[in-house]
TrEMBL record:
Pfam families: Peripla_BP_4. It comes from Prauserella rugosa. This is Monosaccharide ABC transporter substrate-binding protein, CUT2 family (TC 3.A.1.2.-). GO terms for molecular function: carbohydrate binding. Transmembrane segments: none annotated. Residues 1-24 form the signal peptide. InterPro entries: Peripla_BP_I, SBP_2_dom. Residues 28-49 are annotated as: Disordered. Residues 54-311 form the Periplasmic binding protein domain. Keywords: Signal. Belongs to the bacterial solute-binding protein 2 family. SUPFAM superfamilies: Periplasmic binding protein-like I. The lineage of its organism: Bacteria, Bacillati, Actinomycetota, Actinomycetes, Pseudonocardiales. It is found in: Cell envelope.
Length: 347
């Protein structure tokens, strides 16, 4: 046994933590502001403005991260006394979601926040909303046309891989593993571009410290598939130094496989930022996880409010809401986990 994950805790990601705290939730509700203990820019944007109606359509909550996307969006809308949030039923059916957006258009809402079941399939109806003068905020899954959204807010899948790879490199260096390090990867659904982006980022970051992905298996973002993929990996490889699992929901199954095999000689890294993962980090059962913010739709609600009220972003010299925003992918470790725990989602 070369090392245990509980002995490999590192203080990386602190600066990213400060950046995340600087943009923590604020609103008109005093209770929400009490929960925000980090530094915050105060501007007239926080004051009640013109009353607006925002339509929100998200996916079916069949995954912890997706459930958090929906719940944080609803919670954000409730913080503003000048916002009426109309929430469509979550769905994985593009046709049903198209119907929801058509209803929003017919009702004349002031803005729409949309995490599409399928970006290409929802492009036409989103474009119709834009042509009707309703700004659309596209979340996470991009449309196939620039004309379908006023602004797009995304997590950073490639950046997740880079963050995980950089952290793995720090473990290699600090534990003097050199070229003998055995690095494994448990990916998500291989056919998805987001999985490919995460893998590309991980691979390319590892190359900066002379490492490679020695063993790679793919799961399907579910507990069952995670357990199966991890079991296959452990059966095939006798000793591993570092394992990066792309998704903390499938990580429940991955960790179950580790326990069944009685294997813990490796540093276990996760992805997305579930509360399970953060509790494991606190208990010394997991090295770190990389955030894929479940607050993207909540940020979308904020941006939609600004757009509907003809406001800009107070912290920019050019105040207009940007056309595209990519959120950071910080690493959560035992040293900074308390700062991120409120952003975690239940698997």
């Amino acid at each position: 046994m070369r090392h245990r994950s509980s002995r490999l805790l590192r203080a990386t990601g602190a600066m990213a933590a400060l950046a995340m705290l600087a943009t923590a939730c604020t609103g008109n509700d005093p209770a929400s502001q009490e929960a925000n203990t980090g530094p915050r820019a105060v501007s007239e944007n926080d004051d009640p403005g013109k009353e607006v109606v925002i339509g929100f359509s998200g996916p079916e909550a069949d995954h912890g991260w997706l459930a958090a996307i929906n719940s944080t969006a609803v919670a954000e809308g409730k913080k503003y006394e000048d916002v009426t949030l109309r929430v469509a039923e979550g769905t994985n059916d593009p046709n049903m979601q198209i119907s929801h957006i058509e209803t929003f258009i017919n009702d004349g809402v002031d803005a729409i926040v949309l995490l599409p079941t399928d970006g290409a399939a929802l492009t036409q109806v989103a474009t119709q909303a834009m042509e009707a003068g309703i700004p659309v905020v596209n979340v996470d899954r991009e449309f196939s046309s620039e004309f379908a959204a006023r602004t797009t807010i995304l997590g950073d899948n490639y950046g997740m891989g880079v963050s995980a790879g950089n952290y793995a490199c720090s473990l290699v260096e600090e534990n003097n593993l050199g070229g003998d390090a055995v690095v494994a990867e448990i990916a998500g659904t291989d056919s998805l571009p987001l999985t490919q982006d995460r893998s590309d980022g991980f691979k390319e970051a590892l190359q900066q410290c002379g490492q490679n992905v020695d063993h790679r298996v793919a799961a399907d973002f579910t507990v069952e598939s995670g357990e199966k993929a991890a079991s296959n990996l452990l059966q095939a490889v006798a000793e591993i130094d570092i394992i990066w699992n792309h998704d903390d929901d499938q990580g429940v199954g991955v960790k179950a496989a580790f326990e069944s095999a009685d294997r813990d000689e490796f540093a276990f890294l996760g992805g997305a930022g579930s509360k399970n993962a953060m509790r494991w980090i606190q208990a010394g059962e997991m090295e770190a996880t990389v955030l894929y913010p479940p607050t993207q739709a909540a940020d979308g609600i904020r941006l939609a409010r600004l757009l509907a009220q003809d406001k800009g972003m107070s912290d920019l010299v050019q105040r207009e809401v940007p056309r595209r925003i990519v959120l950071d992918a910080p690493v959560v470790t035992q040293e900074n986990v308390e700062q991120y725990l409120s952003l975690g989602f239940e698997s």
